[in-house]
Records
---
Amino acid sequence: MQTICRFLARGTLFSLGVLNLAQAGEPHQYRVSIDESMQRMVVEARFSSSVDTVTARSRDAGEFLIDVRDCDDASPIRLRNQRMMLPAGGLRCMNYTVDLAAAARSEVHNRSLAAENIVVSPALWLWRPALDGDDAIHVHFDVPTGLKVSVPWRRLDPAPNSYRFERSPESSDAPAVFGKFDYSEIEVPGAILRVSVLRTGNETGHELNLASINGWLQSTATDVSLAYGRFPNPSPQVVVIPADDQRRSAGAVPFGRVIRDGGEAIELFVNRDQPLQAFLDDWTATHEFSHLMLPYVAPAHRWVSEGFAQYYQNVLLARSGTYEPLDAWQKLYEGLERGRQSRPELSPNEATARGMRNGRMKIYWSGAAIALMADVTLRESSGGTMTLDGVLGRLQDCCLPSDRTWSGPELFETLDMLAGTPVFMPLYKRYADTAGFPDTRPLFDRLGLVVSGNGLKVRRGGELQHIRMAITEADGAGVRREQLAKRGQASRKAAGSAGSR
Ligand SMILES: [Zn+2]
């Protein structure tokens, strides 16, 4: 395992599984204090050795700094060009005060939240030296009794509110949540989800209760864990945020995203006035959780990560019983056709370089075509013993969560090595820089699916129909979802008769 990981990482160690904390360098020690009214944050940063440069990830962070001083002689430290101007010879310790309330006002998340809970990304307040290799910061939060903290960083047990901040792809700005909100730890195969359900400022009176929200997340994460028997990240941060007014009519989960910044976080924006069944039928969370089955792929190859998530979202919802298998194939077919019609003059790499605005469907679906082709090829050539699920399970074993950004070819080469046979890279070479769209139509025919009018029909005798059935085969999750939906109905009735929300 070590050998394979070292090879895959091109000389760098991975953050989990292989990293031995005892061998790593001493971490920097940060103590973060927040007052009861969440107006101010005071940070004491003790560095493991003298540092000469300290920055924050956001260019706006300087606006919220009230005071910065050297711990030892209390001399002030000034800012220039987003950097703290540390004394010549470096600094071992500093303390600084952040206008937390002003930073919270700058975050769009907080527009739909009650004042008792705020989201303020560490990008706005975590001033730190660059982290190389295994460097880390241990952050301890001192918060008044009754206030909670949620960050995506690895927890340092058993100390409460202590975390290990490590190098990461920094794909976007992670959320940090402070205040009074509903926090739960939800167990799914191979993982404990650290779920924070944030409170909205405008109660509708018809809110889906917390148990139902947690049930939905557990069910969805369990579906994803069943791809290869465990959830891809052992302890991700999940933040459930009330959707703002613009998104109130857009279904149960109008928006979600994965952020890899110091750890892996999933933000899900929800409309809690929707019934539990609408949450169970919504694909957003399945899509976002599926992203965690791959490392962070460079924006230039975003079509790979979006495509794999599109493929899995449909396949997993069929396996869970949410979609009839034929409906899932129909959705895949329609998506692939939309991708085929989107910017046919561009290759997937070119479309991605030009951005989402024009080639969105090409970016979302060309990778799904390749995921499907790879899955079928693996199953066909191995007589069903090797699958895309299995190869991604091996990827998780060796390499996830990953602390860095991967290129598309690097990922595909790794998948080939893990599969033990070249399947992915040949597809990449054939399609990534070729105008048009992977031709999946003959494959659908071999899977026993024929186009009939606007829909797909099953054709008896497709030579690969057994593979079609294996890909979308139900696994009993449908029964679990049905029970959950029934429980949700019962608890809503009980809540209704008791006169509470
Ligand atoms: Zn996505």
---
Amino acid sequence: MLYHINRRDFVKNSAIAGAGLSLSTDSIKAWSAAKKSTVRVGMIGVGLRGQSHLELFLRRDDTEIVAMADPDKEMMADAQKLISDAGKKAAVEFTNGDYDYRNLLKRDDIDAVLIATPWQWHSIQAIDAMNAKKIPGVEVCGAIKLQECWDVVNTSEKTGVRLMMMENVCYRRDVMAVLNMVRKNLFGELLHLQGGYEHDLREVKFNGGRGKDGVEFGPKAFSEARWRTQHSVTRNGELYPTHGLGPVANLINANRGNRLTRLSSVATKSRGLHRYIVNHPLGGPNHPNAKVKFKLGDIVTTTIQTANQETIVLTHDTNSPRPYNLGFRVQGTNGLWIDNHAGEFNAGLIYFEGVSKPHTWENPENYMKEHDHPLWKRFENDAKGAGHGGMDFFVDNAFIECVKRDVDFPLDVYDYATWYAITPLSEKSIAEGGQVQDIPDFTRGKWKSRKPIFCLDDQY
Ligand SMILES: NC(=O)c1ccc[n+]([C@@H]2O[C@H](COP(=O)([O-])OP(=O)(O)OC[C@H]3O[C@@H](n4cnc5c(N)ncnc54)[C@H](O)[C@@H]3O)[C@@H](O)[C@H]2O)c1
């Protein structure tokens, strides 16, 4: 049908196809009147990521940092310095071990908590927060065990406390422009999507302590090398699914008219981390860590099926020399986009039948500019300087705005559970030679009637 239409008709048709969305947009605006003027926040985990959220919260007039919990006193001092540099009042500190955050949760002057801790703590702390009637915003990773995903959902449903999945890549500017194009039907009916976490993390997984190079991990190391690397020793699976999956899940309306049904994972051999230790000037074949056997395959590939018969391929690739790229591909009956460099409008490739020269890729820049998301246009200046090319502003903004307005989060507890579940299911699949695993329906059937709400307009 779209074979011989010109570009203007193409855009017009697309706008008509997207018209259904503007109705929902109006209804969102109707319930968006702010209820709270200030959100009182407790930070749980003020390491490198917690501090980047803290910096963004400190820029806001509507966010007050009341208290912070972290057993690492150096990280706490760094976080307090950020607060004093911003000219704000010092936060109450909870540094007395791994469970002192529970004392933070007992306070009655906190509305919401931002959890940016090592992966094994996310669900435990989110559950504790909801039981204490504090609204958790939880950083990204995958679950340790499938059951914790159910525990988080059950606690949210029992307490009535909402949770936000703080997946920042969903707000990447090119990803949101593509979301706009999908909603305007430029790609036709979606068929296949790809995404991943393709990031050389070797210098994150190893260092020699704070500010020092080296091949240490565990207690002698700093930040993520202190805890993240151990997961590569004992686990083989899609350990970091949400950066790749979150954006594509929004494109196919997962948990909102669609759902992820099954997955299967395979992994390559494990070479990169050992090779890094052996080849590093501060390591070598006689370094004690050269004896460590890493279980995580260098490249883990997960194929996901959906109720609406799309397929998704996720790639986890963190142990090898390679430039960063999340490797998105969005393909429909009428065309496709391939991302090949971390969010730049003029990188990657795009093709639309009836618009592009037949069988010829186009540079996506003009499409990206034309379909730039209204939220980005509105907050472009506020997002300047925020982490990861500005997208971190948007995820924090959504968290604070939804708490203020007392409305549903665009990325909610069902997204958390579904995305986190990919990790233990992929580990099981790999252990069983790629056996297909069912992905639970954490919405218990509500996905059929839930409507898309992610970024329908320029509000948050
Ligand atoms: N979305 C993103 O772009 C992005 C980027 C980096 C990290 N992350 C995620 O953020 C989270 C934190 O990573 P990070 O880089 O800040 O690691 P980090 O090691 O720098 O910080 C983690 C902090 O948590 C503290 N902590 C440990 N146990 C705790 C407990 N029981 N209670 C309170 N605090 C505790 C540690 O002392 C440390 O200061 C991880 O889930 C990571 O995957 C996300």
---
Amino acid sequence: MKIAIIGGGPAGLYAAILLKKQRPTAEITVYERNRADDTFGFGVVFSDATLDNFEKYDLPSYRRITQEFAYWDDIAVHFRGSVHRVGGNGFCGCSRRTLLTILQDRARELGVTLHFEVDIDDEAQLEGADLIILADGINSRFRDKYVAHFQPEVDLRSNKFAWMGSTRPLDAFTFIFQETEWGPFIAHAYQYEAGHSTWIFETDPKTFARAGLTGLDERQSADRMQQIFGWFLGDHPLLTNRSMWRNFPMIRSKRWVRGNMVLLGDAKATAHFSIGSGTKLAMEDAIALADAMQRAPNVAAALDRYEHGRREEVEKTQHAADVSLVWFEHVDRFWDFDPVQFAFGVMTRAKAITYDNLTLRAPDFVAEVDKAFARQVRAKGFDVDVDRPVAPMFQPLRLREMTIANRAVVSPMCMYSAEEGVPTDFHLVHYGSRAIGGAGLIFTEMTCISRDARITPGCAGLWNDAQEAAWKRIVDFVHANSAAKFALQLGHAGRKGATRLMWDGMDRPLAEGGWDVVSASPLPYFPDSQVPRELDRAAMDQIRDAFVAAAERGERCGFDMLELHCAHGYLLASFLSPLTNQRTDEYGGALDNRLRFPLEVFVAMRAVWPAHKPMSVRISATDWAEGGMTGDDAVEIARAFADAGVDLIDVSTGQTVRDAQPIYGRMFQIPFSDQVRNEARIATMCVGNITTADQINTILAAGRADLVALGRPHLVDPSFTIKAAAWYGADVFCPPQYLPGKEQIVRNSVRDRQDVEDLKIKAKPKTRAELRSEAAKPLAAE
Ligand SMILES: Cc1cc2nc3c(=O)[nH]c(=O)nc-3n(C[C@H](O)[C@H](O)[C@H](O)COP(=O)(O)OP(=O)(O)OC[C@H]3O[C@@H](n4cnc5c(N)ncnc54)[C@H](O)[C@@H]3O)c2cc1C
Ligand SMILES: Cc1cc2nc3c(=O)[nH]c(=O)nc-3n(C[C@H](O)[C@H](O)[C@H](O)COP(=O)(O)O)c2cc1C
């Protein structure tokens, strides 16, 4: 077999090594346009997990690599004169030049042919190859040559970055967030061998321009960085090697294989440097390709196996990289945070590291985070313990005169079980048990303002006395038997009205017994859905008045808070989104116009809702669809509602149009809550695939939301909060009837938590840095 590899970077060389081991008789040739020792960049970084992989696949190169590596365990975050260090991270760095030399030597030793200073510009030069590996890097000529086939998507990110080096020794992966007269600069730095460290500098385009970096040459821009970070670098110079400022391209290719050609490493997909995974991904691609070649009967089947087997892992890493890079792009949002909260945000930005996880690794750090959080709560006038604070989830929050005892919320969820809009005993038990279960705040399902405002025939309403009386009974029960506050969510289904019960086909039109539906524009949801009537002003008046009447009934029921539903494609959301609002009057067009009717409804409700009680608005912060609402629009919407007197934005997403493409995942809507909260400077509630108290604490402590709502988890576990409180040693209200249960779980949780933590600590393998430092310790005298 003949294998030709274009590109002698980590991907190409490691693929050559693994394939040659697998097929000693194969003729494997690597073509590299540079000289053997002619390499850009300074250090590369690998996690312990990646090294474990290298150990498994090629022991000799693993041994040489690890002999050359610098190890560290800590991440240090420098911000506004403070340093926070967190251990247990298990990383190591190595010089890129050394890594390539090791891989070249190993490839030669195995019998791979290496041709340097050979630039391949046409695969015809490789005639006779059974397999051609395109490992030609980020600017892959071959990916571009077959662009229509590989269909790469290149997302050039806004921040500027430059890769430099220094002789400054570092004993931790170091982030420095530096305020300058021009704006914020960030340094990501780590040591990769004795006396050498990598320094990646990053800044936003405006700060870049203000700092006069445009047009400077390598040396001049290094001097500017030296000026900014000199206080830390001391006498150590910054070194350059093709250290030009550039914008990071996030590359995703739709296809990785064309005939017998396959893309590997940066050529097929990139991952932002802030998660240090470029070289790791490149070498793990090589592993995946070698595995596929081992298992499949022929090259075509192997390439198919590689592409399909590897894609998910690459996309997961890219998603983590995306989340991380967005955090760095918007670092100014957190610039006025308490430094310890800021550092917590840095640590938890990509979701893999959480509050609990850090509590095990760096208990003092988390204790400081808790204290900072408690100090903020105390500053709002609460008499909370700052020296031995409870976890953020159990800190109170005040909205107007309503105090919520903890930050866990039962998200609004339709039960589709009302009779002619009247909530039933099912609702009494449903809301009653969740209130008793300890959540600080519970929401009603979307409660409809009129009969034809319902989504389905089973939706609850609040337009007549029978409904008012039934809701009052539930509110009274909640207030009499729990400490939960109760919010009423009012809405109008718009074009999603007259549809079936959830379990009969969500959003599908009713076969019979339907009613006429209305919307901002006459656009059906499904092609076979009812075409809604476009609202005229008279109908808008009626709807606004119905919202007001329902709000007045809500007040008479005794609800503590009122939420206006402007999300998920329902009536008011249909005004907000340009995808569903195609009006040409003053309610359509620019965002200000699209906001006009929802704001008008809000203002009219606010006027009758008691001044001491808070109001919130639920929005879909993005439509997840081309041409739809974005996070930036959500910030504008939040600002407009804040000016009109809203106290909290309930940040959800999507459900506007059928062909949306949401990116689901754990806590997937948090970036939007974060953006609204920290750009519009308003309290937010986040929601969406949040399932654990650990996640709630992570979100709150990082300042990404003020309240955290859980929907589906509460459907199966009404007592979610009471259990979490026992686990974290916090106290939540429990009615006297249930006290024995609470006492038992509190007692058991202390022991159970200790057991789980001991197990986790025991199960965690020592990092290579820990093993090294243990080996270096002199043996204790006997
Ligand atoms: C300026 C810069 C500095 C970087 N520094 C670091 C760093 O310090 N640490 C780190 O972890 N990551 C660094 N990276 C990222 C890292 O290099 C990549 O993620 C990783 O090297 C990907 O490996 P690869 O083998 O896919 O591609 P590369 O390492 O880019 O290797 C591709 C190779 O193909 C060769 N080539 C391209 N076209 C042809 C052709 N037509 N014919 C023959 N040869 C060809 C190139 O010369 C190159 O050697 C840096 C990237 C850039 C752009
Ligand atoms: C059965 C069900 C009914 C829902 N009904 C509503 C509703 O009436 N109003 C609303 O704003 N959101 C509604 N939602 C959305 C939830 O409030 C929540 O945003 C969503 O389920 C994501 O949170 P989760 O991942 O914690 O479930 C509903 C969700 C479910 C599962």
---
Amino acid sequence: MKACVNHPDKEAFSICHNCGKDYCELCLDKGIEFYYCKNRECRAQLKKELLRSGLPENVKCPNCQTELELLEDERISGKVHCPVCEAFIDFKMSPPKVINSDNYVELLSSFNAGDIGLIKSILEDANIDYYVFGEQFLNIYPAIQPARFYINENQLAETKTLLKDFELRIWGASTNQLEKK
Ligand SMILES: [Zn+2]
Ligand SMILES: [Zn+2]
Ligand SMILES: [Zn+2]
């Protein structure tokens, strides 16, 4: 068997499309077509692949018609926050879904991909209406910009109760935010 270059005891799952080395599943991130390893240059190629299939650099806000310059994360995730009308727009839906941000409150943020996955599953299990921004960004530039969770204000109290047990596990920054609101 071919072994992962990082884990000699693990069978290689695929090669990195950029450097061509063999890696196990843990050591790879999936682009649209190809897998990439976590080396800096290879991550940069992953980002390029994701950007190619994402949104253009500029889009019009479907809510207020302002021309918006998108962040890379917004282009990749298709989820955009319009700073002019404060709407959340999900361009992955067709037509793009516009959500009035007045009804949503930023509750917490996290740099930890594992925590983000857990928070999402807790919210989804409880049928909480939420929005998460910056999730994709984290795969490409870890620890530069956190993923931010916005919760429907009608479910804010419920969500806080749900996440109480979770508080200990998330970073100081996120815990502070939980207490502030
Ligand atoms: Zn690579
Ligand atoms: Zn590996
Ligand atoms: Zn707008």
